[in-house]
């Protein structure tokens, strides 16, 4: 597997919800509601999740993350540009370290519209290194933006981050760290999600799952083709302040097709 040039070698390389508890809307929270203490390494690591979570989907055929290979994707004329309703005034209520990731929980307001269905933003969280790989490349960081509709169906927007220019939004988010595992801090500040999005909104999409137990399937993934940039210092700061290598390895597509939307104006 290749890595992004310029990223420190010690990164292992890979970077939002219960179908019954929509207000939780967080796949790590889901896992905490289970009594099994899963981990990312050792005997409770990803290769054993299906054994630990007997009633989970972790052994299913439509799991996430996956390796997205351009030449194997399929253009779909029915795909449309993303209809994002991020108004720049949504408030982050709190940030929490749940032992698996750093998660920022949002108050109601921002949402996306897919196929004329509203999916409300619930939270964002991070994986180091990235979970999805693009053409075999694992980026140092992946941000997941978790959205849920009125029927508790989940859409996750995934954004890769690579080393480059410093990110002002990341500086804002990092100022509320560090957090000890299990610790929560109230933020109650506005945050403009638009500043964390890539300029190019082309994307891949496929049906998959939550990437932590119970690995619930039926999740719609939208993975931006273009990464954003963060400085090396910001990557190192996140490494210091949050759990490292909190990513699940590549899952088989098992016949699934990853579709791609490319704007004709790019």
TrEMBL record:
Keywords: Lyase, Metal-binding, Zinc. Pfam families: Carb_anhydrase (PF00194). The keyword Magnesium does not apply. InterPro entries: Alpha_CA_prokaryot-like, CA_dom, CA_dom_sf, Carbonic_anhydrase_a-class. GO terms for molecular function: carbonate dehydratase activity; zinc ion binding. It catalyses: hydrogencarbonate + H(+) = CO2 + H2O. Its EC number is 4.2.1.1. Gene3D superfamilies: Alpha carbonic anhydrase. Residues 36-266 form the Alpha-carbonic anhydrase domain. Belongs to the alpha-carbonic anhydrase family. This is carbonic anhydrase. It comes from Muriicola jejuensis.
